[in-house]
Task: inverse folding
């Protein structure tokens, strides 16, 4: 026989009430799943999409109060069920817009309330002040428990909650969704010359290329030690933009040098700018003996890099589009390269482009040492899709422990807040990193399994040497 309510402590009364609520919510979610083949989070998202479509995933996450990572998982399931469609925004390719399909519209039109049926009926029968009091009381309980930041979706799904695996990075998020948190610099990649690009990057303290240079050069040197002249180093810069990464790695230029050159010496007219760049490179001896091929979706950026002599070959293609396939000449470039680098481009470049490249990378010398890859990935991105695509093509992929590199300052307060919120959702500690005002990237490498340990050791040696260097060492060649 139950104890009288008056004899039970308040904490036990509250706990029992919460248990019954949780149980009722769970039963209702299971009923939705059985009768309508949909869960509560899926239904809540569908209802919001129907109200605001087209809408971005981040807007859905904000309005339904689920984490971005949870919303992406929900959208993946809804898309698999044919209830929604996701399309890139025609004006801003970083954005993805979500809308209902015809089956989705029909389901929403006939959908039950996301609340348990009896509760929904009773709430609707109450007066407005009473409904407000109930809602405010429940919200106050959430605040008192200090769990307002916790994602509710796992509790609302049917079936057991799966334990997390791997590191503390949390659920996987799509690159498209995470990119929405970043400032948009698309307009500076399409100009004929790099002047606007350089000025914009300098304004935001862009430094990832220079930070990663030593690791790229160390990988090139390891290849050269083992292959000699039989297979000279040919580097493929994925996401090369105007070839600035090539200048930093091959010629040892600092980013400050590039800023000084384009702000004071390089004319704005295209041919004159290309000629000035060629003359400067002619008197600047390379610090790395290599040829460089660039891959980027910006045709104007690749054209300048090739015409100015920053790249030995250029591929202006967007392999993120599933309908785009490489030509025979482009495949030949990929086959001849034994070092892939990407500094600051992963996110715009995803596993789709890398899959196209890795099918052919280094195939001209199947018995040689390599190919290697050195890439930086912002901590806001999930690295697992990148790891998977390298592993699928027979390369071991892993992070270089301790190699965390600053990429650039946040463009504004809004970007900072979005990025910190996203990282907090994934339980990533930002206290000594992004909260100091910058994007940070981790360094990753890839190599054939039997060569990975050698490349990793070379990266560790490079990291140790970098840590022992005094701050502020450097000079600018004018």
Result:
């Amino acid at each position: 026989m139950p104890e009288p309510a008056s004899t039970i402590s308040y904490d036990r009364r509250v706990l029992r009430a919460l248990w019954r609520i949780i149980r009722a919510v769970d039963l209702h979610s299971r009923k939705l799943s059985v009768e309508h083949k949909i869960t509560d989070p899926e239904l809540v998202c569908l209802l919001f999409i129907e109200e605001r479509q087209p809408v971005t995933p981040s807007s859905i996450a904000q309005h339904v109060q689920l984490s971005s990572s949870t919303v992406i998982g929900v959208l993946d399931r809804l898309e698999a069920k044919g209830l929604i469609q996701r399309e890139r925004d025609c004006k801003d390719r970083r954005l993805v817009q979500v809308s209902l399909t015809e089956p989705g519209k029909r389901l929403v039109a006939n959908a039950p309330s996301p609340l348990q049926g009896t509760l929904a009926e009773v709430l609707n029968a109450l007066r407005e002040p009473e409904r407000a009091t109930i809602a405010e009381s429940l919200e106050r309980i959430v605040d008192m428990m200090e769990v307002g930041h916790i994602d509710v979706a796992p509790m609302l799904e049917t079936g057991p909650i799966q334990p997390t695996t791997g590191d503390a990075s949390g659920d996987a998020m799509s690159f498209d969704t995470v990119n929405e948190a970043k400032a948009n610099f698309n307009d500076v990649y399409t100009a004929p010359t790099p002047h606007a690009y350089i000025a914009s990057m300098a304004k935001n303290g862009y430094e990832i290329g220079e930070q990663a240079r030593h690791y790229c050069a160390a990988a090139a040197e390891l290849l050269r030690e083992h292959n000699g002249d039989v297979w000279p180093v040919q580097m493929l810069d994925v996401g090369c933009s105007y070839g600035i990464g090539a200048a930093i790695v091959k010629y040892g230029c600092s980013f400050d040098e590039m800023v000084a050159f384009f702000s004071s010496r390089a004319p704005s007219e295209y041919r004159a700018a290309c000629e000035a760049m060629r003359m400067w490179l002619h008197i600047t001896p390379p610090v790395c003996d290599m040829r460089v091929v660039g891959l980027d979706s910006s045709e104007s950026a690749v054209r300048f890099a090739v015409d100015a002599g920053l790249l030995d070959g250029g591929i202006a293609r967007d392999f993120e589009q599933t309908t785009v396939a490489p030509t025979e000449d482009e495949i030949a470039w990929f086959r001849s390269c034994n070092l892939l680098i990407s500094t600051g481009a992963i996110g715009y470049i995803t596993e789709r482009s890398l899959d196209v490249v890795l099918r052919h990378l280094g195939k001209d010398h199947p018995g040689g040492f390599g190919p290697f890859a050195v890439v930086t990935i912002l901590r806001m991105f999930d690295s697992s899709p990148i790891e998977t695509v390298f592993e699928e093509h027979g390369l071991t992929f892993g992070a270089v422990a301790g190699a965390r590199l600053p990429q650039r300052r946040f463009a504004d307060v809004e970007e900072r807040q979005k990025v910190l919120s996203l990282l907090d959702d994934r339980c990533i500690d930002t206290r000594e990193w992004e909260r100091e005002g910058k994007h940070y990237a981790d360094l990753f490498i890839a190599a054939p399994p039997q060569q990975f340990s050698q490349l990793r050791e070379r990266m560790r040696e490079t990291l140790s040497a970098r840590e022992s260097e005094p701050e502020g060492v450097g000079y600018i060649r004018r």
Summary: The two ends are 89 Å apart (CA to CA). The CA atoms of residues 188 and 196 lie 6 Å apart.
